[in-house]
């Protein structure tokens, strides 16, 4: 006798002698759950744990039923839903249905109520209902979810005859016929997938509901069981619907999800199907993963999850399509139309002509995707052909990869005028891309444990290709017009697509993924016959794909020295244009939170300034010409609006050249008009622009310069619930302080409501005029997700010979009020801020501030040491 059987027998013996009361039953079930915890740690089969928990729950409920309703006539107790299919987890709902004959409610109603109360007192998560067979049929006909729970029912206690009548009623031909049930379930799945972004690759997946989750396995069972009358996935092999290999894949993936769900319920102590960040590390440890160089345990664990989810999603799609073809489209499929000697179309679906096609001509595994691009009337691939592709992936070996026919097909797919993104996504879904490019296969399912990347590396790569390709589509030309125009003039868009494919290909290996990716990109280019010039461009793009994003967000891109340093690496207009498009596509494909109008404007400004500098014969002359053109345009507009030229010039005389370098003509007009309205040096001007060209709300404050002015304004902006993205501070020769802030709301959008703008203006003006001590704004702690990360603070000071300020770089855990705390410390140390550049990368804030002493000098080593100590103390608090 095994230890499992021994425990079950002993428990069953002990429970039979229990006095029937909720506490005894609750303690008895807790005893089972404690034993299951031991079994889980011993890595016993998850099915054993689930079945044991289900049967123990059955036994206790049956004993309670026998206590309150000993007779079997007129009523029956059914387990339905997940409990009905014997898939209980520690926090699962216990869904039961009491069936009554039409005239039995008066007889048994009171006892049934006492029975339910007993189960609630056992603290079961009970889902209960009492119905007649007629009402079950009526409710089930109206509600697909209710009907589905009935199809999974089993008898726990009571009248077998009544249960037989119930089964006869719900299996009647007119109660959710197979075709109707399939269509409704398919629609239900589509809606569910849509709620989760139609992807399994989310940073916090739902084990049940996300694409690739348990629901995707259940829907296959539900649909096919309704049609064929089978009860388990394995039974589908017997009706020639599922191959043994496919069953093993589904079975293994489902068992992993079951084990993970069991672990999660146990960890949280209740029902929880979301694999939240704060649980992922603990779950990884429970599954035996350990950190390795360049690969965290949690990332290895999540890779296993995502790969399993991918397999479920692939099989779900194929099997549902197979069902539709074999059952619902069987009699309406058109005659085949030949496309070539290997492929034909039928009712808009591509299919191989015979089962031996791929075996006889392996390049057909790639040719399939090219045909889909070249025949836009095709809407998809027949399920039988998808199955053939999956079963022949083993043919994609080194010989296949080095076959000139395959290499040519792959490059043709990249070079088609339409369908590049869609077919690469399909190629990834079918497993062909991972087989053809093993380096891509290595990142399938690879997640990065941070808040920056919303997708796994493979899904992110495909998304980047999507956004790069989108730049070529006319109907999207208005989204980022500058990029669409540049794309249209590219020498060869294929080079951009290859850079998209390889920019993150070396993630998860340890070391610098940009440098390691160059090695893989070089091999690809050599194998596919690209010339030296194209290879060098692609490899440079892979190596530098993070540069433009970093410079635009963390450097003063209005500074000619910054542009000069950036171009020292870029060198040519072609490189600049390709890098710009790759950067935009990369950021868009990372997550919705990463891309914004603000970041788009930063990249556009960097591209524009760099392009001007590259196209100029003399960079210094260009800078002077730009200054003259900017100020002339602004002056012309101001004069047209009725302002006096001498008044404007008198004001501008008090501003340094640096001011005009950093502003566009439209901003100068706005700021000049507002500064001219000041009545005296004791007055305050506050102005807010709803949205600027930079994709953010602009806030201007102008008054006599005094200590702590920047701290006071930034603190009040924080009180308003706004996030400062950048700030510029100019002190005029007349002793006035001009501060310009660019802010976004909590959702990352500019502020647009006029009433809000008016309220903000009044609140800021009142705060500036308030001469009493400033109370620091109070903040709630950051999001639940931020608590899952331990991000050490890092502080760096840089004194450049050609600059009068010190550059302060701060990298720290992001949290509400972080910038305000930093500014407060600087104010206490009498440090002036000239410019601030604010960026959030995942769970880290990466802020860059240009600072100087009271006497407008750089900070010396002693001052830096003191400031570093105070900042680190504040960041750690």
What is the fold's blueprint, element by element?
Elements: H1 3-16, H2 22-41, H3 46-68, E1 75-79, H4 81-84, E2 94-100, H5 105-121, E3 126-132, H6 133-142, H7 144-151, E4 154-158, H8 160-170, H9 178-195, H10 214-228, H11 235-238, H12 244-268, H13 277-286, H14 297-328, E5 337-338, E6 343-346, E7 349-352, H15 357-360, H16 364-374, E8 380-381, H17 383-391, H18 398-401, H19 404-415, H20 420-429, H21 432-436, H22 438-441, H23 457-470, H24 481-488, H25 493-502, H26 513-527, H27 532-543, H28 547-554, H29 560-570, H30 573-588, H31 597-615, H32 619-640, H33 645-653, H34 657-662, H35 665-675, E9 685-689, E10 697-704, H36 709-719, E11 723-731, E12 736-744, H37 754-769, E13 794-799, E14 806-813, H38 818-828, E15 832-841, E16 844-852, H39 861-876
Parallel strand pairs: 2-3, 7-8
Antiparallel strand pairs: 1-2, 1-4, 5-6, 6-7, 9-10, 10-12, 11-12, 11-15, 13-14, 14-16, 15-16
Helix pairs in contact: 1-3, 2-3, 3-5, 6-7, 9-10, 10-14, 12-13, 12-14, 13-14, 14-17, 16-19, 16-20, 20-23, 23-25, 23-30, 25-27, 26-27, 28-31, 29-31, 30-31, 32-35, 36-37, 36-38, 38-39
């Amino acid at each position: 006798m095994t230890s499992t059987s021994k425990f079950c027998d002993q428990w069953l013996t002990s429970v039979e002698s229990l006095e029937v009361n909720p506490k005894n039953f609750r303690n008895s079930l807790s005893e089972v759950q404690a034993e299951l915890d031991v079994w889980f740690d011993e890595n016993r089969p998850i099915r054993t744990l689930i079945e044991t928990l289900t049967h123990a729950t059955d036994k206790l409920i049956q004993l309670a039923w026998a206590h309150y309703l000993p007779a079997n006539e007129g009523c029956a107790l059914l387990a339905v839903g997940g409990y009905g299919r014997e898939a209980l987890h520690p926090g699962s709902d216990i869904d039961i249905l009491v069936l009554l004959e039409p005239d039995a409610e008066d007889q048994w109603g009171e006892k049934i109520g006492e029975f339910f109360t007993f189960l609630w007192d056992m603290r079961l998560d009970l889902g209960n209902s009492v119905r007649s067979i007629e009402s079950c049929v009526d409710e089930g006909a109206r509600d697909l979810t209710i009907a589905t729970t009935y199809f999974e029912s089993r008898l726990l206690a009571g009248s077998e005859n009544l249960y037989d009548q119930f089964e006869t009623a719900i299996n009647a031909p007119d109660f959710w016929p197979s075709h109707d049930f399939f269509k409704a379930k398919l629609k239900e799945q589509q809606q569910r997938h849509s709620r989760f972004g139609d992807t399994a690759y989310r940073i916090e997946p739902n084990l049940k509901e996300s694409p690739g989750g348990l629901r995707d396995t259940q829907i296959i069972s539900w649909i096919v069981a309704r049609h064929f009358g089978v009860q388990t996935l394995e039974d589908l092999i017997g009706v020639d619907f599922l191959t043994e290999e496919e069953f093993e894949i589904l079975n293994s993936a489902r068992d992993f999800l079951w084990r993970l769900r069991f672990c999660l319920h146990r960890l949280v102590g209740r029902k929880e199907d979301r694999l939240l960040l704060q649980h992922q590390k603990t779950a990884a440890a429970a599954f035996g993963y350990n950190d390795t160089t360049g690969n965290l345990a949690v990332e290895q664990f999540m890779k296993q999850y995502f790969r399993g989810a991918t397999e479920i999603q692939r099989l779900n799609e194929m099997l549902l399509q197979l069902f539709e073809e074999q059952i619902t489209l069987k009699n309406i499929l058109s005659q085949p139309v030949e496309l070539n000697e290997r492929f034909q179309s039928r009712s808009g679906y591509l299919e191989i002509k015979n089962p031996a096609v791929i075996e006889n001509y392996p390049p057909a595994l790639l040719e399939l995707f090219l045909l889909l691009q070249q025949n836009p009337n095709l809407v998809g691939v027949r399920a039988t052909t998808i199955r053939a592709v999956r079963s022949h992936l083993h043919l994609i070996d080194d010989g296949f990869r080095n076959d000139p026919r395959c290499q040519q097909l792959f490059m043709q797919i990249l070079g088609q005028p339409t369908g590049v993104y869609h077919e690469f996504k399909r190629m990834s879904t079918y497993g062909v891309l991972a087989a053809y490019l093993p380096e891509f296969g290595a990142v399938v399912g690879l997640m990065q444990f941070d808040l920056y990347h919303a997708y796994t590396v493979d899904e992110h790569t495909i998304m980047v290709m999507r956004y790069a390709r989108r730049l070529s589509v006319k109907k999207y030309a208005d989204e980022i017009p500058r990029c669409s125009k540049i794309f249209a003039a590219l020498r060869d868009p294929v080079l951009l697509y290859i850079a998209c494919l390889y920019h993150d290909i070396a993630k998860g290996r340890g070391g610098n993924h940009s440098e390691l990716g160059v090695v893989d990109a070089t091999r690809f280019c050599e194998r596919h016959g690209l010339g030296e010039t194209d290879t060098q461009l692609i490899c440079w793009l892979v190596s530098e794909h993070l540069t433009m994003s970093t410079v635009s967000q963390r450097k003063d891109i209005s500074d000619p020295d910054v542009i000069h340093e950036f171009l020292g690496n870029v060198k040519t207009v072609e490189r600049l244009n390709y890098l710009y498009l790759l950067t935009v596509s990369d950021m868009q494909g990372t997550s919705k939170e990463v891309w914004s109008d603000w970041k788009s404007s930063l990249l556009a400004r960097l591209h524009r300034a760099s392009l001007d500098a590259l196209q100029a014969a003399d960079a210094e002359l260009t800078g002077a010409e730009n200054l003259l053109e900017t100020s002339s345009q602004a002056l012309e507009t101001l004069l047209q609006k009725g302002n006096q030229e001498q008044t404007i010039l008198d004001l501008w005389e008090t501003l340094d050249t640096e001011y005009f370098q950093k502003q566009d003509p439209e901003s100068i007009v706005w700021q000049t008009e507002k500064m001219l309205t000041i009545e005296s040096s004791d007055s305050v001007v506050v102005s807010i622009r709803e949205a600027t060209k930079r994709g953010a709300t602009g806030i201007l404050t102008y008054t006599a310069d005094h200590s702590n002015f920047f701290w006071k304004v930034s603190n009040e902006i924080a009180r308003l619930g706004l996030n400062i993205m950048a700030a510029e501070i100019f002190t005029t020769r007349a002793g006035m302080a001009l501060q310009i802030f660019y802010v976004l709301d909590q959702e990352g959008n500019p502020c647009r409501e006029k009433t809000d703008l008016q309220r903000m203006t009044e609140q800021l003006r009142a705060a500036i005029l308030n001469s009493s001590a400033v109370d620091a704004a109070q903040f709630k702690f950051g999001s639940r997700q931020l608590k899952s990360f331990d991000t050490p603070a890092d502080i760096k000071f840089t004194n450049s010979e050609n600059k009068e300020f010190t550059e302060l770089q701060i990298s720290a855990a992001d949290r509400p009020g972080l910038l305000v705390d930093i500014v407060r410390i600087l104010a206490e140390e009498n440090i002036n801020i000239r410019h601030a550049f604010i960026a959030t990368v995942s769970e880290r804030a990466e802020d860059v501030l240009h600072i100087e002493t009271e006497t407008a000098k750089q900070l010396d080593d002693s001052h830096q040491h003191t400031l570093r100590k105070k900042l680190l103390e504040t960041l750690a608090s």
